[in-house]
Each structure stands twice: as C-alpha cells, then as structure tokens.
Predict the structure of Disease resistance R13L4/SHOC-2-like LRR domain-containing protein.
Amino acid sequence: MKKFLFLITLMMAVCHISKAQKSYKFYNKQDSIDFHHYRIIMTEAYEWKAWNGLLKRVLVDSSYQDSENYIDYDSAYTLQKQISKFEYYIREQNESYTKIEQLNRTNQFDTITHVSFEGRDLKRLPVFKLLKCKNLKEIELVNTSVKKIPWLLNWSLFGLDSLETIRIYNHAPNKQIKFKRNTNIEELVYRDSPYSPLPKNFHKLKNVKEIDFARNDFRANSKFHLEKLQNLEHLNLSRNNIDLSNLAEDTVNNLKYIVLSFNNLTTIPKEIGLLKDLVDLQFAENDIQSDLIHPALGSLKKLKVISFYKNDLDSLPPFIFDLKNLTELDLYFNEIEILPNEIGNLKDLEKLYVAHNRFFSIPESIGELKFLKEFYLHHNRISYLPESISNLKLITDFHIHNNYFQGFPEFILNFKNLEDLDISYNEIHKFPPEMLKLNQLKYLWMRGITFEASGKEEAEELKNTLETLQKNGVKISIEMDQKISP
C-alpha cells in the first residue's frame, strides 16, 4: 500500500512540475568544465539533435574520437559522479495562465484570475494593469529578475483582495527578491532558484499559510525567523543546505507540517523544540546520527508523523517514545539493530516502517500496538516474531519478505483485515489452505519461494488454494519458473 501511495504521490508531483527540464548548479567553474568533459567522453562526443522532424546522432567534437588520449567510460562515469552538484528544474510557464502579451491587449480584466510572466528582462511587475484584475488569484514568475512584490497589490483602495498565491521559479541568479506588506497572500512558492538568496522580508506576508522553498540550495547561514509567521501551517524546505538552529529564535505557533528532506543534516539541535505545534516532521534522505539528536525532539507532543527515511541512525533515542500521539513512524533504510521494548508505548501507531535495517528480532511489546494497520519489516534478519503479534487485529499491510523465516508464520491467519501480504524470499515452502479465510486479501507476494509438498495430495491442495485465491480476485505475484514439487 505504501509503495502504491508513493507512486501516486510521485505521479502527482511530476504532473505539477510538467514541462520542467532538470539542470545542475556547480559550486565552481572547474567542476562544470570537468562534468561536461566526462559527459562528452561517455557519449563518445555524440549528441542527439532534431533534424527535419527526426532525431539524428551528431558528432560534436572530433577531438574526442581518439580513445588513446582519453579515459574509458567507467572511469569517466566514476569521476563525474564524484563532482558535487545541485539538481533543480528549469521551469516553463503554465500554458493556461494569462501572459503579459494578452494582459497588454485585453479589455476584459475582470475575467483574468491567473497571470504568468517570464523572462530575465522583466524587473518590475506591471502593477497598474494587475490592479485592474479584480478577480486575480495567482501570479506566476518564471525566470524573471523582478526585484520586489509591491505593497500596492494589497491596497484595499484598489479593491484587489482576491490575490492568494504567488509562485516564483528560477529567479535571477544572485538577485534577492523583496516582499512588501501583504495580508491576503496565503501561499508562497519560491523554488528551483539555487543561485538566489533567501527572499527578503517574506515575513511581511502576515497571513501566509503555505510556503514552498524547495530546491534553492539555501545555505547554513540563512535565517528564517519562523516565529514571525504566526499563521504558517505548511513549510517545505527540502533540497537545501540549511542549519536547523536558524529556523527560529522563539516559539513558533501553528506550524504543523515541515519537510526538511535532502538537507545534508547530521544533527537535530535543541531549536527543534520551538516548533511546538508540529504534527508532521520529515527528515528523509539526510545523514542524521542517533547520538546527535537533541532530546528537545521528544517535547513535540502533538507530533503524529515522523520520518527518518534513509539516514544514519544506529539506534532509537529513548525520547522518541515520549511522542505518544505518533500514528506513523518511518525508519526505512537505517542501520538500527534493536527495536526497544518501549515501542509498545506508542499505542496510537497505525503505520510502522522498519524495513532495510539490521533487526534480528521484534520485542513482545509490539502486541500493544492495537491500532497498527501497516507493518513493513522486510529486508532485515528476522526469523521469528513474538506471539503477541497476533493481537494486531487491524493489520492491512504486512511485508516480511527478504528475512530468515522458516516456514509460513501461522499468526498471519489472525489478520482478518489483511489486504497486502508479502512473504517473498524466505525459507517458506508451503502455505495453509486457511489462507482462503482471509476474505479481505487483495495482494499476495510469494517471489523466490520453492513450493514443496509431502505428496501428490498436498501438492494438489496447494495448487487448489492458489487457484481459489486467484478466482476470489487476489492478485498473486510469483516467478515464472516457480512450481509445486511433490
């Protein structure tokens, strides 16, 4: 289920950034030169170019044809991967929005709700034309050099009180955009502008509720002063290089969701405790170490979701178990060997993701998680689960593949709400006909399993069980060469 939801989310994100081309920021000129040098080596100095509607492979530099003068493909690939770079997207205008040319020739300003401006030559917004758009909801700036968002857009005298969203992409390098006081804007997007500094005075958007600052490569010295935004609820700071101690200097009210993924973080400082209203906290894809997490994290009593997906945790700090309102805990891809008995304290957990770690066992207290629905513990070293796991009556998704289980875990038959089961790549050679009683089952994964039976009668029973499951609508995943051997 989690895999499916992740794919849906990814598809939505791709749709939202449609017509965007990936680009790179290099931290010095020589890195840029070297990167493209290695790329030419790997392509043998050819590029694909459009010619009369057809793609043709064209030689762009004949000097690279002499292989004796250049390194081989594998070496070039390895060296190119070592070059530090920052990925971002080059955006294009939203086609459905009103462009500046249309704005200049229209007389029907009241019909305009979304406008989009593009081009480095644009340094000032056409304010007086925008003020005629009494139903304007959104302004989009793509690859512009606009210096400020003027206060006139919030002047009630002109009746422009419908503007809710400002989106800014690929802002001019090293040009800091400045905001003036505005009480109507509820959403600010400023992303994919890696050469530009943190927007100045964005705190003057007093009623902003959502801010997306992703993919800007903001540096560690960027100070956000989130305490000044008392209505902010959602904040995306993914793919930057920020210092968490610079998020705020005082208590932050109302901020509920924050994404801090891909920030090269190694520590979680005490300042995290200033975000006291957090409900959802995302630390995915960082380098956070267990002993560098400040206990202040345990003071976020309203927290319901926390993700440490792909970090460097080797243990779980005890104060994690003070977060009694957690409903989702994501520990995917870490180096944790022991799941403490205190996991049973998190009695509201509905989703527990501990896959791709180093667990040998799961504590008896797991049975205290009576509301648990999704439990992913695949890719570990587990051969046995405690009897108390049978208490998890609400389980819908249970993935234990790529472990060391010997035989089918009978407790699975107690999971009457089970929808998605993966037992692949274990030492499991048969499964009971009682599987047919799992009436909610929709997906059954049994890849890498050698089915064995004590005789023809048992082999027939296994085969009939599989066929009946399929007739009942269960989608079964097995490998093409898997057979039932009597």
Q: What stands out?
A: The mean pLDDT is 90. The two ends are 34 Å apart (CA to CA). Residues 23-87 form one domain. The helical segments are 2-16, 29-42, 73-81, 100-105, 127-130, 456-471.
